[in-house]
Design a protein that fits this description.
CATH architecture of the largest domain: Roll
Number of strands: 17
Largest sheet: 9 strands, mixed
Bound molecules: fe (ii) ion
Order of helices and strands: EHEEEEHEEEEHEEEEHEEEEHH
CATH superfamily of the largest domain: 2,3-Dihydroxybiphenyl 1,2-Dioxygenase, domain 1
Number of helices: 6
Length: 309
């Protein structure tokens, strides 16, 4: 597909209960690269293979969870157009000036009906992945530490009114529905997996009474073997594993869910399939919801639906 409009997930701001513990986890266990700290007490990270300055920020707070999730858009003209389109659709936006986040241009922030703050931005410094832009080597020796995902890939958010959220993402931001899980009535969605690209999902939502909740932030690995290696590293570091290694029915990814030291669930996954906007959305029925979420167990664990941050 033509890559215009919204390009990809760009950054997440997470709350942690203990900053030093969080820094140690995200740097040494997950294996992100620390790229800066700001005067608000936020610590910035990227994966080793990402080029932009940051994709994950953590800050210390009294409760864990998500502050906001952002998408990169094609250019500043697109940012202005989407800002106007959101307003025309009845979504109030706020402009956050360039530089409020390190190395990051102006952001357009808005709240979706699930209670989450979403941001769009067009500019962020390219600090590279350690490889040259001319005649690069295929990988960088010693770049990978810990689990070492290649990118921050997507998030799954829990909150109410997900059909209104879907409308905003589809009608204004140009996303399309890739997969969905329907409830017992056969029509109301329990969960929606949305893409702005050819990835099986760039963001997903599950219906939940409490607004603004994070189910997981996901990091991509290149192979199933690296998913197994991630599980080894989690065990070595006594990371609390929720489930896996296993496979999702939805999106077909191979996965592990685990928790950071503050209780924010994260995923390390591999796979999923390529998709396009003309593809028919895949539906999972209520009686097969367990299979959709955890393909091997064929049933949900209680934590999947109830534990969020
Ligand atoms: Fe996921």
């Amino acid at each position: 597909m033509a890559m215009t409009g919204v390009l990809r997930p760009g950054h997440i701001s997470l709350r942690v209960l203990d900053l030093e513990e969080g820094i140690n986890f995200y740097r040494n266990v997950l294996g992100l690269v620390e790229t800066g700290r700001d005067d608000q007490g936020r610590v910035y990270f990227k994966t080793w293979d990402e080029r932009e300055h940051n994709s994950v920020m953590i800050r210390q707070a009294d409760s864990a969870g998500i502050d906001f999730f952002a998408f990169k858009v094609a250019d500043t003209a697109t940012l202005d157009r989407l800002d106007a389109d959101l307003n025309a659709f009845g979504v109030r936006t706020e402009r956050i000036p360039a530089g409020e986040m390190l190395a990051t241009g102006e952001r357009v922030r808005f709240e979706v009906p699930s209670g989450h703050l979403i941001e769009l931005y067009a500019e962020k410094s390219d600090i590279g992945n350690g490889q040259a832009y001319v005649n690069p080597a295929p990988w960088v020796p010693d770049a990978e530490r810990g689990i070492a995902p290649t990118r921050m890939d997507h998030c799954l958010l829990y909150g109410p009114d997900i059909e209104k959220v879907q409308e905003i993402f589809e009608k204004v931001l140009g996303f399309y529905l890739v997969e969905h899980v329907v409830m017992e009535d056969g029509s109301t969605n329990l969960g929606i997996w949305l893409s702005c690209s050819t990835k099986a999902h760039d963001i997903a939502f599950v219906r939940h009474p409490e607004p603004g909740k994070l189910h997981h932030i996901s990091f991509k690995l290149d192979s199933w073997e690296k998913v197994l290696r991630a599980a080894d590293i989690m065990s070595m570091n006594r990371v609390s594993i929720d489930i896996g290694p296993t496979r999702h029915g939805v999106t077909r990814g191979t996965t592990i869910y685990a928790f950071d030291p503050s209780g924010n669930r994260f995923e390390t996954f591999c796979g999923g399939y390529d998709t396009y906007p003309d593809y028919q959305a895949v539906k999972w029925t209520w009686d097969e919801v367990g299979t959709g979420i955890f393909y091997h167990d064929r049933k949900l664990n209680e934590r999947f639906l109830s534990v969020v941050s």
